[in-house]
Write a structure and sequence with these properties.
single chain; alpha+beta; 5-stranded antiparallel sheet; 5 strands; 25% strand; globular
């Protein structure tokens, strides 16, 4: 499993998650969302098990094919942003997943 990145100056309504080299894009997104839901800094009370399936927001197979590991070590060339369960999810080909609260307002 990847790890949460601590970024100086990032507000508490944003979480940055770095995927492991072998982790698929859909696994990275699920891990990032799980970290957000469990993070007490976010003012959300969602239960991970109550969230809709990821495929309600994005085709997980297509996402995995678009970002086929290993992750790019350089600058991001490919990125996608989508809304999942009122979270705005941005992922790029370096394996960075950024989740912000209030996806419906962006």
């Amino acid at each position: 499993m990847g790890e949460r990145e601590d970024s100086v100056g990032v507000s508490t309504d944003e979480l940055r998650y770095r995927a492991d080299p072998g982790e698929t894009a859909s696994e990275a997104v699920v891990s990032a969302i799980t970290a957000v839901v469990r993070d007490t800094e976010f003012e959300r009370t969602d239960d991970v098990t109550s969230l809709p399936p990821l495929y309600d927001a994005v085709d997980a197979d297509a996402l995995n094919q678009l970002f086929d590991p290993p992750w790019n070590d350089g600058d991001a060339d490919i990125s996608i942003t989508f809304v999942y369960a009122d979270y705005r999810v941005h992922i790029d080909d370096t394996g960075l997943v950024v989740v912000t609260d209030g996806g419906d307002s962006h």
